UniProtKB/TrEMBL annotation:
GO BP annotations, alphabetical order: purine nucleoside catabolic process
CDD domains, A to Z: nuc_hydro_IU_UC_XIUA
GO molecular function, one term: purine nucleosidase activity
Keyword terms: Glycosidase, Hydrolase
Enzyme Commission identifier(s): 3.2.2.-
Superkingdom of origin: Bacteria
Alphabetical list of Pfam families matching this protein: IU_nuc_hydro
Recorded GO CC terms: cytosol
Protein's UniProt name: Ribonucleoside hydrolase RihC
Residue stretches spanning the membrane: none
Inosine/uridine-preferring nucleoside hydrolase domain mapped to chain residues: 6-295
């Protein structure tokens, strides 16, 4: 079977871990790199968390350390949701330091893209700082990227301020660069992750499905204040499931741009479906998800994780 080549750019992060865990057991994917970026927590923690997750999953995927800060702004960590380490709620093994590559994430993403005969999909689960640096420094990589699938933005309200979504709002200039790049983009926004919640019954099923399920349920029970009775918002797992099972989602073509000036709406993703702004559509947006099927398929994928 022809495998789909994939780079994961991520700020683990509890929901990042829940997404990466199922991606690494998908047989049709050839995951060439996990690139860390500062986001939920600082770069040392996000990098270490990726290495700890790989130790738990017993997977030999190279890791490269990425940007320690947004292009033009200060870090704003989300330790309230993810814990001080970024992956609070489960006692992981020691990080597999031997998987950490010499060079930084941007150089390693560049190398993989330019050496690959096939186009490569990039899945972003954190701020877009690495990707903005990559395509600004090496514009020739754009034609080697088949698609960027991002957990980011929102077609409705945000989680940073009124309209900002965390990954876009932490580094809105980076997001603007990526949306203007001409690279095919699919945006899986907050609104989808808010719909595709796992319920307590799903967590209980995860806990019966083996060690990976116990790990993911433990993380979710400490995520975002641990209010699991309201359902666990599946932000990053939604983007991962879109990559693996797009038929679970409904998408629309749109023009998307990012607010970088107004303090009131900084980081807002302005989504124009019908050409009001007279701009060429530059992205697909997920606008709906089959929640029941999403929950069943995610829980099954966790049960099927091989270590
Ligand atoms: O807004 C949700 C996103 O921000 C998720 O990717 C979460 O991990 C944080 O990075
Ligand atoms: Ca994330």
């Amino acid at each position: 079977m022809e495998k789909r080549m994939l780079i994961i750019d991520t700020d683990p992060g509890i929901d990042d871990a829940a997404a990466i865990s199922v991606l690494l057991s998908e047989p049709s994917l050839d995951v060439r790199l996990i690139a860390s970026v500062a986001g939920n927590v600082g770069i040392e923690h996000t990098t270490n968390n990726a290495l700890k997750l790989l130790a738990f999953l017993k997977k030999d995927i190279p890791v490269a350390k990425g940007a320690a800060a947004p292009l033009m702004r200060e870090n704003r960590f989300a330790t309230n949701a993810h814990g001080m380490s970024g992956m609070g709620g489960f006692d992981f093994p020691e990080p597999r330091k031997e998987l950490l590559l010499e060079n930084n994430a941007v150089m390693n993403e560049y190398k993989i893209l330019m050496e690959s005969e096939e186009k490569v999909t990039i899945l972003t689960l954190g701020p877009l700082t690495n990707i903005a640096l990559l395509i600004s420094t090496f514009p020739e990589v754009k034609e080697k990227i088949s698609e960027i699938i991002m957990m980011g933005g929102s077609t409705e309200r945000g989680n940073i301020g009124i309209y900002g979504e965390f990954n876009v709002s932490i580094d809105p200039e980076a997001a603007k660069i990526v949306f203007r790049s001409g690279i095919p983009i699919t945006m899986v926004g907050l609104d989808i992750g808010r719909k595709a919640r796992l319920l307590v019954e799903d967590l209980e099923e995860l806990e019966q499905s083996g060690d990976p399920g116990v790990m993911i349920s433990s993380l979710f029970r400490s995520y975002d204040g641990g209010h699991v009775e309201e359902g666990v918002k599946m932000y990053d797992p939604s983007a991962a499931m879109y990559l693996m099972e797009p038929e679970l989602f409904e998408t629309k073509d749109a023009f998307i741009d990012v607010e970088i000036s107004s303090p009131l709406t900084i980081g807002a993703t302005v989504v124009d479906y019908d050409g009001t702004l007279c701009e060429k559509r530059n992205a697909k947006v997920c606008v709906d998800v089959d929640v029941e099927r999403f929950r069943r398929r995610y829980v099954q994928r966790v049960a099927d994780i091989t270590r």
